[in-house]
């Protein structure tokens, strides 16, 4: 018969040792749990029932980040996190990336993830988050894009008034389209390309608050943008495009959103036609990206629910590459070369911050006025 080793201890030393070990483990575990609880409270204390939501002044909407959120190669979010001191982390498991905020300034940053589906779901999830109050918040999309070399240059920052969806459509392969059709891409429920009688579904084009766009452009049009030598060398190939050869600048132009990363002269022609068609000739295609129609749609629904104000939504896209190749280079060659070396990436990220932060800082500085009054209303009364 086996004898319990504890029974062999006449002086109870084994029992004493085990008690001490057990007590030590209990204290260590309790301390660890308390520390974890404190850390979680620091990050999520505003979700406690009865807590007043944090009033957000500005939401900076970015779409992607490389690696870490700070200290390495920057994506769209890193400059904002570091320079705006967005040091308060809020877990956001219902979306692509945790959110960060500077509670002193009221600036919050989000990384939605790339693509319309991610951006729309992220903005909806954020707008419904009970930890925050977005009823007076301004929303600024600050991301990179492709740019039409007929209109803009790499590194330029472009404020949009119209957002056009490039996905809502019928399509026939180009090898099968009728000979009298300019394109095999046509609006839903239409009778052909650019059908003048087609009314659309209501999701093909969105017009932002033009007065707010104009205010943002006026405020930032003289912001100095960087122009590295590497980028100059890349754009020098566009000798037949005078605007593509210019130094980067701040301008206005429309944004075409689509989940497909397209490239080439023929698709660039389509983009110009598509934007002109849906804006009834009022808008000019300048930048190409993915997410902004999805963000707008979610914010529009949130506005209807009393959670946000769609009239405070701004879109700033900066040009990291061109949407078509220079003369003498095929679309395939240029697309693959861009995939290896975005010479305009770094300056586009810098432009997004320099121009966007000018607007953000102004809104925060004069929040006492801009909380309840649009910035352009101040201009109208002067």
Total beta strands: 16
**SSE pattern, N- to C-terminal:** HEEHEEEHEEEEEEEHHEEHEHEHHHH
Model regions low in confidence, pLDDT < 50 over at least 5 residues? 1-46
Classified by CATH, the class of the domain at 116-168 and 203-381 is: Alpha Beta
What's the mean pLDDT score? 87
CATH topology of the domain at 116-168 and 203-381: Rossmann fold
The radius of gyration computed from the alpha-carbon positions, rounded to a whole number of angstroms, is 27 Å
Cα distance spanning the termini: 100 Å
- Please identify the structural class as seen in this structure: alpha/beta
Overall, the morphology is globular
Topology:
Layout: H1 13-44, E1 54-55, E2 58-62, H2 78-83, E3 88-90, E4 99-102, E5 107-111, H3 116-127, E6 132-133, E7 138-147, E8 157-159, E9 162-165, E10 170-171, E11 185-186, E12 205-207, H4 210-220, H5 229-235, E13 250-252, E14 254-257, H6 265-278, E15 285-289, H7 292-304, E16 313-322, H8 331-340, H9 345-365, H10 367-370, H11 375-381
Parallel strand pairs: 1-6, 2-5, 2-7, 7-16, 8-13, 9-14, 14-15
Antiparallel strand pairs: 3-4, 4-5, 7-15, 8-16, 9-12, 10-11
């Amino acid at each position: 018969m086996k004898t319990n080793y504890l029974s062999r201890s006449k002086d109870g030393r084994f029992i004493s040792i085990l008690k001490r070990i057990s007590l030590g483990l209990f204290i260590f575990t309790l301390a660890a749990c308390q520390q974890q609880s404190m850390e979680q409270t620091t990050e999520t204390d505003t979700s406690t029932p009865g807590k007043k939501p944090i009033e957000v002044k500005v939401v900076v909407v970015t779409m992607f980040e490389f690696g870490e959120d700070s200290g390495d190669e920057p994506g769209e979010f890193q400059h904002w996190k570091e320079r705006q001191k967005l040091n308060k982390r809020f877990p956001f498991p219902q979306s692509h990336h945790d959110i960060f905020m500077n509670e002193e300034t009221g600036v919050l940053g989000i990384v939605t993830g790339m693509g319309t589906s991610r951006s729309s779901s992220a903005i909806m999830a954020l707008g419904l988050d009970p930890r925050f109050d977005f009823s007076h918040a301004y929303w600024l999309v600050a991301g990179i894009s492709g740019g039409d070399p007929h209109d803009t240059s790499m590194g330029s920052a472009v404020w949009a008034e119209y957002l056009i969806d490039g996905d809502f459509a019928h399509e026939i392969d180009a090898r099968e389209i009728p000979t009298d059709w300019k394109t095999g891409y046509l609006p839903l429920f239409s009778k052909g390309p650019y059908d003048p009688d087609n009314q659309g579904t209501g999701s093909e084009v969105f017009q932002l608050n033009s007065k707010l766009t104009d205010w943002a452009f006026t405020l930032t049009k003289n912001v100095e943008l960087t122009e590295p030598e590497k980028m100059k060398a890349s754009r020098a190939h566009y000798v037949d495009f005078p605007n593509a050869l210019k130094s980067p600048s701040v301008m206005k132009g429309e944004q075409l959103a689509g989940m497909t990363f397209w490239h080439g002269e023929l698709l660039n022609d389509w983009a110009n036609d598509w934007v002109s068609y849906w804006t009834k000739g009022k808008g000019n295609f300048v930048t190409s990206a993915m997410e902004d129609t999805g963000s707008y749609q979610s914010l529009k629904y949130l506005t209807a629910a009393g959670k946000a104000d769609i009239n405070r939504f701004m879109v700033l896209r900066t040009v990291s590459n061109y949407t078509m190749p220079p003369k003498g280079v095929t679309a395939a060659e240029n697309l693959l070369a861009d995939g290896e070396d975005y010479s305009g990436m770094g300056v586009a990220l810098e432009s997004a911050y320099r121009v966007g932060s000018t607007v953000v800082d102004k809104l925060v500085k004069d929040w006492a006025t801009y909380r309840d009054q649009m910035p352009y209303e101040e201009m109208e009364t002067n």
